[in-house]
Structures are given as structure tokens and as C-alpha cells.
Amino acid sequence: MDKHAAIGVFDSGLGGISVLHAIRNLLPAESLIYIADSAHVPYGEKSPEFIVQRSLAISEFLLAQRVKAIVVACNTATAAAVSELRQRWPDVLIVGMEPAVKPAVQASQSGKVGVLATTGTLRSARFAALLERFASDVEVITQPCPGLVELIEAGELQTDTTRALLSSYVEPLLQAGCDTLILGCTHYPLLKPLLQRMVPEYVQLIDTGEAVARRLQSELGKHNLLAEAQQPLDHFYGSGDTCATERTLAMLWPEAQPVIALGF
Ligand code: DGL
Predict the structure, then answer these.
(1) Rounded to two decimals, what is the model's pTM?
(2) What pLDDT sits at residue 255?
(3) What distance in angstroms lies between residue 12's CA and the mean position of ligand 1's atoms?
(4) What SS3 state is found at 235?
């Protein structure tokens, strides 16, 4: 395996760009291949079987590009498919992600933690296991957020429509006394500027991007696969309307290359 091979990162759409930023900040020499499965966004409302099928196809494509690791930059796809991916490719370094329940429980003073995530993540057995393991001493209030991902994909990061929908999801959690909110979908950190203006200062917003980047760094290090100083080369692929994906991507990763059509 070549230490200068790229790292493959995928999500249902552009939410995983929040993770890509964390990876680039921590590992600036790594080349990145990002896949937005925009033709099938949102994953949050799809069946686990469908998400497994897409995750396998995308991973197969990434491996054909000779990536040295795959990051599932999507909580919903991790919940539905990471076990299947690891089973199919036991020798490939695969990093998944899940809502940051443990750090949120540690951070909460009120003992009430809110989780914003997709319907798929909140319904999953992996999420249930996470709560059982780390959240037995606190009250966890879950909030699915249908519609939010679509607005983010459309580039509506600061509009009144997005503010109103987000507020309808966040307000009940604040009313219930949550002092810690878990952003359990990689799209939601892209709304942090809006969110920060919406919640009192004492409310902590916790996401998983940096933890995933650190995990990736440690796994690559273990396998002697960290890239040495080099100018990284990034590639972006999309399965949907690539022009629309490019428009929103330009707001999130201004130096992005054109989005290449994935073709499946
Ligand atoms: N960004 C994804 C996540 O972290 C999925 C959003 C969606 O497509 O519903 O869960």
C-alpha cells in the first residue's frame, strides 16, 4: 500500500465536507477523494438495505481508485453499512462515525442531552447500543430533522427557511432543559453559524469531525501510511446533478475542483 495514495471519503451528499475540513486541518499532506451520493440524498429516510447497497458500490469505486483508507463521513451510512463494509473488505482501513454520545454525556451539567440526527440513525441498533453503553445516567432526548439535509444540499445555509426549520427542531430540546446538543449528522455542523445564534451561550454543540480525523491519523500511523510532506491532490465526485453539487460545494470548499459525474 502506497502512503501517498488518497483517502476516500463519502457521504449521502455534501455533509461529509464538515469531516473533510477536519481531515485537511489535521492531515494537510493527505490527498482526498470525496464522493457525494447526491442522487440518493437524503439517506436518513432510505432503508438500511438501500444504504448498504450504495455504500458497497461507492467503496468499490474508491478501492478501484486505489485509496489507502475509506472514511464513512455519514452517521446514517455508518449505522446501516459499516459492518457490511468491514466484512466485505477485512483488510481495508475503514473509519466510520457515530453521534458523540460519550463526550456529550461528560460535558452536560443539566443531565439532559439533545441529539439531532437523521431518522435512520436514531432508529438504528448501533445508536441504541451507544445509548445503552454511555447514557444510562442522563436523559437523552432525540430529535429527527427531516428536510434539513435537503436545504443544506441546496446551499441554503443561512436562509430564513432553514432558520425556521432548524429552530423548530432545536427549541423543544432547549425547552426540555438540554445544555448539550449532539450534531449527529455530518450535514448539521455546516449550520453552526446559524445554530450558535439560536442557542444560549451555555449550550454546547458537539460534533464528531475532529474525533474522526484523529482516529484516521492514528490508524494510518499504526500502518505506516501517513503521507509525508507533499502537495495534496483532491478529487470530487457526485452521483446527482453535478452543477448543483458544484454550486453548493463552492460555498463549503472554495478551492474545490469541478465535480466529476460518478456514473452509477
Ligand atoms: N450526512 C449524513 C449523516 O451524517 C446523512 C444525511 C442524509 O442523507 O439524510 O447522517
Answers:
(1) 0.98
(2) 86
(3) 6
(4) strand
Q: How far apart are CA 104 and CA 202, in angstroms?
A: 13
Q: What is the pLDDT of residues 13-45, one digit of tens each?
A: 999 999 999 999 999 999 999 999 999 999 999
Q: What does residue 161 show for φ and ψ, rounded to 5 degrees? A: -60, -45
Q: Residue 121 corresponds to which cell in the numbers above?
A: 440513525
In order of their start, the domains of the chain are 7-97+209-261 (3.40.50.1860), 101-206 (3.40.50.1860)
Label residue 135 exposed, middle or buried (CB < 10 Å: 0-12, 13-18, 19+): middle
Q: Of the candidates 189, 202, 230, which has an alpha carbon nearest to the alpha carbon of residue 27?
A: 230
Task: Specify the ligand 1 atom closest to the Cα of 185.
Answer: 4
DSSP string, 101-164: HHHHHHH-SSSEEEEEE-HHHHHSHHHHHHHHHH-TTSEEEEEE-TTHHHHHHTT-SS-HHHHH
Contacts of 67 (CB under 8 A, 6+ apart): 5, 6, 7, 8, 33
Q: Which residues are catalytic?
A: 74, 185
- 55 and 43 in contact (C-beta within 8 Å)? no
Name the DSSP letter for residue 12.
S
Cell numbers standing for residue 4: 501517498
**In testing the pocket of ligand 1, which one of 187, 239, 248 has its CB within 8 Å of the most ligand atoms?**
187
